[in-house]
Each structure stands twice: as structure tokens, then as C-alpha cells.
Write a structure and sequence with these properties.
The protein has 1014 residues and is of the alpha/beta class. The structure holds flavin-adenine dinucleotide and iron/sulfur cluster (2 copies).
Amino acid sequence: MATHDIPPDDPADDPDANYDYGSDSVERPDLVADLRALVDGDVRFDSYTRQLYATDASIYEVLPVGVVFPTSTADVAAVVEYCVEGGIPVLPRGGGTSLAGQTVNEAVVLDFKHDMDGFVGFDPAKETARAQAGITLAELNDELAAHGLKYAPDPAWGDKSVLGGAIGNNSTGAHSLVYEKADGYLESVEVVLADGTVTTFGWVDTDDLAGLADSDGDLEARIYAEVRRLLDEEADEIRERFPDLKRNVSGFNYDRLLEDAEERGEVNVARLLAGSEGTLGIVTEAEVSLEPVPEETAVAMLTYDDVIDAMRDVAPILEHDPSAVEVMDDVFLDLARDTDEFRDVVDLLPEGTDSTLLVEFYADTPEAARQQVADLVADRLPTATPAGDPAEDAPDVTDDPVHAVDVLEAYDDDRQAHFWKMRKAGLPILLSRTSDEKHWPYIEDTAIPAEHLADYVEDFREILDDLDTFASYYAHAGPGVLHIRPLLNLKEAEGVAKMEEIADRVTDLVVEYGGSVSGEHGDGRARTQWNRKFYGDELWDSFRQTKATFDPDWILNPGQVCGDEAGESDMTQNLRFDPNYEFDAGFDPALNWDNENGFRGMTELCHGCAGCTGYQETTGGVMCPTYRAADEEVLSTRGRANMLRSAMNGNLPDDPLDDEFLHEVMDLCVGCKGCKLDCPSGVDMAKLKTEVKHAHHQEDGVSLLDRVFGHTEDLLKLGSAFAPVSNWVTSLPGADTLAEKTVGIAAERDLPEFQRETLRKWFDKRGGSTISEPAADRKVLLLPDPYTNYSKVDVGKAAVRVLEAAGVHVEIPDDVGDSGRPAYSRGLVNRTRETARENVAVLAPRVRDGWDLVYVEPSDAVMLQSDYLDLLSGDDVESVAANAYGVCEYLDGFRLDEGAGFDASGESLAYHGHCHQKAEQRDHHAVGILRRAGYDVEPLDSTCCGMAGSFGYEAEHYSMSQAIGDILVGQLGASDAETVVAPGSSCRTQLGERDDVDVDGEPPHPVEKLAEAL
Ligand SMILES: Cc1cc2nc3c(=O)[nH]c(=O)nc-3n(C[C@H](O)[C@H](O)[C@H](O)COP(=O)(O)OP(=O)(O)OC[C@H]3O[C@@H](n4cnc5c(N)ncnc54)[C@H](O)[C@@H]3O)c2cc1C
Ligand code: SF4
Ligand code: SF4
């Protein structure tokens, strides 16, 4: 490699990278100039950035004024001070995972996650931690793990959401049976007040309040005066109107204030800020108390014939002191069964299962954990035989009738994690419907005392029956927080009206059962409207007085919790989809979208949950490599999906086929298909990108770079024909610079080495297969993809050797090679369709004659297995797709190794799979067969290698490619394996070119290791 061995931290800083994550169209340049002069952080008011921050995980969409990425408390204070003078609202934002619309506003957004995400320190004496507002909860806990402690609030999306957001929403999670909400762990906060003052709120003795309070003093003194007013004047009303529930996050946090004053004799304004949704002050740093990490956990999944039975079982189960009780109903389980990721869990459930309760226990030892499950089962399902023994003196804790039908137990970490992952992916799973009717969140987190849950669900169902719809019921049954999402079409006026009526009637129901309208996700735009009815006029007015005291100019995220300055709040305004919604792709889609409810169904599928911005281990291995590499919203699947939809529904003035849009938004998607598998709703951005690129080619012609890479086979063929001269020419000094200047191929890249003797020639020369057709059980057409045929010939030879050792008759056809993958990845759909048609015409009759189709290159195999079905239809293409395999998949799937006689030495291998095969869930085969051949294999849960076909060859993508590659290299560094193997030729090239990977030349393809083991 020549110059860029160490890529810059931000790939866009590379001088060759002609992208900057935004558009050239900037709103309010005056404001931008002023703010840039005031802050160290980035200021972006361009149309792309604004649109990217116009949505969160809710049903709402509001275009912000612009986005500032503060780097310090001083930056935050400067922005607030400037904005309050200009009367411009300000909105603090973390991960943007909120579900009620509190993270979108016509405001200057302060993105804390980007740069204010530091861990400040751990205080061993107090056992507290201090961190900046933008640190993710997962990172915070990573910092604390060494101390055996954790930040206990555990919202399901803890690796995507941040401390400031958790405080803003007063978050908690599945373990609120044993832990408090975020407010319960707040010791102090550094906060920027609405006039730009920076102060700290911590514990104050109630006797000292009088000295701090002054209703004519500065803002901080007026805030303390308001605290005094609340304690003196509103105490009775607070006791009367706040529900007696652990889980209530709607309204301002008055009940915590009162409770602290009464029980501790002190108050903490930090705790009043919890759940205020950025409306009272902006937290920049917080000191939080911690909890010990439990030693052991165990899970019992109880199954039921009916969700009402499950609900009736919650109260008796709580008698067993579980750490969590989570419900999943039939609608949830049916949708989970349709996902590749969770089908296996649902299939474990007994036939006829309608609902489940996931019951978890914390314990000090594995034996104690098993015993707790056994005690539960002995009580709630006495006919079952649990793995452990109940305590000899275990009392019959409850005498309620038995409702459960069966139980699955989980003691090992992987099985427990898999059960939990399915439960936590509830929302995205439910929103995987591509139709206009979706399970929208707007009354999705009511909290009801456990003893009333069954009656509440029955009444809720009656309301939905009246309105001719239904919902799914899942989540935290233990503390009574049910996620209920009625199915509605908000693109129709009737759907919007039904939404409001359901919310209205459910609020009445909640009041009747002593519950809360929001037990978890906050008020935002969805529930603020109901707070007056829920809390009554006096507290509503008090909320507004509190707001006016903290924020006299109503600039901090106005509209949430207690309405806007005029007292208005309307849940039906600013909907992302409403009856006025229009969509026009601007072109006729060229691919087959029948399974996705049309191109539009897929374009509108992403609901903004931010799953694609999380950790590798929680999100899934692959999605989304570009976000992980550069931490930019526009580089996440969510960012791209939001941008594409907005360009097609008119919210973004740009045409999706504009050069700038393609360049900044679509081109940096590496097309790895990671989202197709890892996004729980199945957003397939790679396919969307292909469609858009194709439409662009139709309109504007094909660029030189796309033409070059789209004709990879021709180029490789030419290089091979003139080898070794062609290799000498490409290695001449200056050849790399010329390639960069003329075509745009990165000078740092080595071009493939061409082989004069192609795989086909070698095969013909040796006289074809050594296994005759009649002698073989199976016969394979080994399809020579261009890289293998002209450059990586040894891989093809190894495949022939291994297949023949397994008794397979092999042919390498002359009339099929290129699957069309290189052209397809450049959006050359017409050309690829032609290639596909020609290949299918040749291959379908051969398949009918009993031939299996095998590629050594995974992306070519997947091209036939999956992408051809997007290009062609009919029996022929379906039979080609059904009989195409990657070589390891073929060997493993048919257990062909049994006759091959592998005998590997036990050498340890780190296996980096190919993203496309992962997306099709065919990647595990290589690990299976390598292990049976005798290798000790460590499969890496790795993302894309960064090369992604031709992406990493492009000069302007080189540093992004390296930044993505860093993630894989980091994983390799953590592995003890002796050798890395990878089936993808571009992955091998990428790894082979890295100085920081210990490999001689390029790493081997798994089939080469199999050949070695013969
Ligand atoms: C699939 C899914 C599952 C979820 N599960 C849970 C769950 O189990 N429990 C739960 O509680 N929630 C849950 N949520 C909601 C949400 O993820 C949490 O509330 C989360 O803690 C919000 O964090 P965030 O960083 O995304 O905050 P954001 O959405 O960015 O912000 C949340 C609120 O806090 C305010 N805020 C942000 N930063 C600051 C700051 N520095 N100072 C003051 N205010 C600030 C914002 O203005 C906003 O009003 C879930 C959401 C999804 C999509
Ligand atoms: S792409 Fe998928 S994971 Fe990402 S926000 Fe959209 S729905 Fe969620
Ligand atoms: S295809 Fe890959 S890079 Fe593109 S959005 Fe999906 S996960 Fe991200």
C-alpha cells in the first residue's frame, strides 16, 4: 500500500473523499455563521442533515431548524444563550429512539451522541459514575463492568440510546421489578438552563430550600422557589392524582420530588428533570449511582393458550420474586415466526401456543437459579419436570389455578440471550408489515397494576373490536407495562380518527384501573394531549407553571408534557404518514418487489427504531458497517431509508436521482445486505440502492467508473490473455496514479494478478473430471466466476479437488461464468437481467438433467439463489435458484465430506464469512464443514470487510473501506486463531493488503483449507 496506511478517524477527512455527509443546500446561512463563531462543534443546517433529524422512532416527523454537534458544556450553553435571544427553540437529542415524538421539533437540535459521549470517572468511595450525556448506556456499563457494577435502568435499546436520553425519558426496562427508573439513580446533573446558565443540581436538604429560593432572583433561585411551591401547595393533589405505580413517566416527576422530601428530608432537582423530555433543562453530565451485576440468571418461558390466561398468571408469578416477567402474544409470535432470526425460537414452542411469559430470575449461584425456576414451575405448572429440583421446603406460594401449558428453560447465556433478543425486538418485528396498515405506537406503554391486567386487556380488546381493528400485546407484564399497538392505516382520515378515539377511550380505561398513560416511553406528541384528563386541571396548570418557571421563553423542546406556550397539543398533527401523504418514486421500478408490497412498501418500511445504530453483538453481525465506521446518521440504514422516503414523498426538495443525493446518501451504502437480515423489520437497502442507481443510469447514462467495474469479466479476461505482460504493466511506477486519475481506482490498491492459465484452461488440460459421471452420486457444474477463473485460479482448483474427493463429478462450463454480480452491484440492472436470462436459459435445462450449480465465490452463488428472483420470474429461474450453492454450503448441506476423508491437524481458524451469504443465512455451512474436517474454527461475528466488491477499490471510498476494515481487523486481533479464512475474494484482498493483519499474501478460501486437509 502506498500512502494511506493509517486512514483518518473520519473517512470524510481523506482528501480523496468527495463527500461530507450533507447537501449543498443550507438553510439560514446567517444562523450557521453565528453559531459556527460560537461553538467548537460542527454546525449543519443543510437540507440532508435537517431531514435526517426530522424523525425518531415515533409516528411523527418535524423538520428541525438545523443540527449542532456540541463538544462541550460551553458549546451547549452558547447555543442556548444565542437561541433564547433569537426566540429559536432548542431540542437536546441522544440516540433518537423515542417512540412518542419528543425527539423531533422545529428547533435547533443538539446531538449529544456524536461528540459528548465521554465517560468521566468512577468514584469507588461512593460507588457512583459520572459521564457525559451522550454516552450510550452500553458503553457506560462496559466502563463499569470491571467494578462488578452497572447502571441499572435497562431500556431495550440500551446500546443505541444514551444517558441524556434515558434521563430525558426517565427510562427503565425489563428489570424494573428489581430496579428503579433513571430518576432513582440520579445523584447530580450538570445542566444548561434555558437562559444559558450552567449549574449543578444535586441533593438539597428541604430545610435549606428557603435559602436557595427566590421568586424574583436569577433563574436557578426561581427554580428552587418553584420546588418550594410544589411541595407547599401541590402535595395533596400530587398524592391524589399520581398513580400508585412504580412505572409512570408521564407528566413532570412531581411524585418523586414529594417522595424524596418526605422520605429523605431532601430534594434533588436532577430528579425533577428526569422524564421532562428536554423541556426543563439540558443535561450535559450526570453522576449516577450503581447496582451490583447479578451473578447468575435463569429464564423460564411459560406458554399459554390465550393471552388472558397469561395475564391472569402474572400476579401469582410475581410472588416468586422474578427479576422480569415479559409477555409475547400470538400476533407477536406469528410475526416473529416469519423472521429468519427468530423462527427457531418460535418453533420450539408447543403447537397451539398463543402467548408466552418470559420469567427471569437473578441468583447468586447456578444451583440457586435452577431452584428458583423449579420452585416457579412446581407452583405454576406442577405437571412439568424442570431441570432443577424445587427447594424441599418450597411452599405452595400461590393457590391460583394453573394457566400455563408448557415451559422452556434457559440456563446458558446464549439461549437466554436469544430469548431476550426476540422479546426486545418486539417493535421492529411488529413493524415488519410492508402494508399501509401498521402497528403504530401511540398508546403502546400504558401501565396497569398486575392484578387488573387481564380485565384491562379484555376491555382494551372491546375498544378495538368496536373500531374494527386488533393489536398485539407484549412487553413488561410484571410491572404492568404492556406494549399495545393497534393495527391502523394512518394514511387514511379514518385511521387517524380511530387512533385518536382509541387513545381517548384507553385514557379513560387507564384512569379507571389506576394505571398510567405512559409507563415507559414518555408523553411527547402522542400523549401530552391526554395529560390534562389524566392528571386533572390543577396539576395540568401546575405543569405549565413549572415549565414557565424553568423556561420562561418556552424554547426548550416546546409542546411536550404540558403543551406549547398556548396550551395546545394535538396528537394527530405532524404525523409521518397522514391522509395528505404522497409518494412518487419518480421512476418505474425495474426489479421484482412482489414480496415487499411493492417498491414503495420497502421504501416506507423503516420506522426509525435505530436498531441499525447499535452494537455488533446486540444488533447482529453485519448491519450497518458504514455507520459503525463513521458514526454518522446518514450512514445508517435508518438514515438512508429516511432520506430515500423523504426524497420520494416530497419532504426533501431533491430528486432521488440527483447526483448529489446519490453521491452523499446512496453511494456510501456498500450493498452488503446486512440490513436485510439484521434489521428486525427486514429493510433491504442494498436492493433499494440498486433500483435507484439503475434509474439514475437510465436518466443520466452510466459513469466511466460504473462501466469499468460493471465489465469486470471483460477486463479480467483481457488481463489474463496478456499475462504476464498485463501484470508487469499494472505494476509499473505511476500505473496506480494513472488508474486513480483516469478511472477513479484508488492508487493504494493493488490490481488483481492475472493468470495466463485460466481455471477453465487448466480443467480442460487435465482432461476434465477425474470422477466419471456414471460413477458419481452427484454432478456439479462448477461455475467459474471471473475472479476465480482469471485471477484466483488456485481456489477453483482446490474446489475441484475437494468436490472430486467427495465423489462428485465436476464440469466447468464454457458458456456460463459471470453471474452478473459486478454489473448488478453498480446498478446496471438491464445488463444484469440480460446476463441472468442467458445464464438461466443455459442452466435450467442442465438442472433438469440433475446438475447442481456451484460457485466458489459467495456473492455469485447468492446472485443465483436470490438476486435472480428479483430480476426474472418463472419456473426456470426458480429451479436455478433452488439448485445453486456456494461450495462450502454444497459440501456441508449434502454432508459430502463423509466420503472425502478429511484429516486436518486441528489448526485453529478464524472464519470471516461473506455478508451476502450471511444475509441468506447460508454462511454457517463453511464453519460446519471445516470443523468436521478437523479444524478448530472460531466464527467471527464480523461485519463487511469494507471492500464490498468494487466499493473499496474506488479512490473516494478507500478510507471508508479501510475504516470499515478496521472493525474486522480489531476482531482478528482479539482472536487466538492461527489462520484467518474467508470465502469472499474481495474480503481476502482487503485482508491481504492490510499491514496490520498477520497473513502471508492473501488469506485462504475455506475450500483451500479443505483441500489441504485431504
Ligand atoms: C425498540 C425500542 C425499544 C424500547 N424499549 C424501551 C424500554 O425498554 N424502556 C424505555 O424506557 N424506553 C424504551 N424505548 C424508548 C427509548 O429507547 C428510551 O426511552 C431511551 O432511553 C431514549 O434514549 P435516546 O438516547 O434515544 O433518547 P432520545 O430519543 O434522543 O431523547 C429522549 C428524550 O430525552 C431528551 N434528551 C435527550 N438528551 C437530553 C439531554 N442531554 N438533556 C435533557 N434532555 C435530553 C430528548 O429531548 C427527548 O425528549 C424503546 C425504544 C425502541 C425503539
Ligand atoms: S433500518 Fe431497520 S433497524 Fe434501522 S431504524 Fe429502520 S427499521 Fe429500525
Ligand atoms: S446494505 Fe449494508 S451498508 Fe447498505 S444500509 Fe444495509 S447494512 Fe448498511
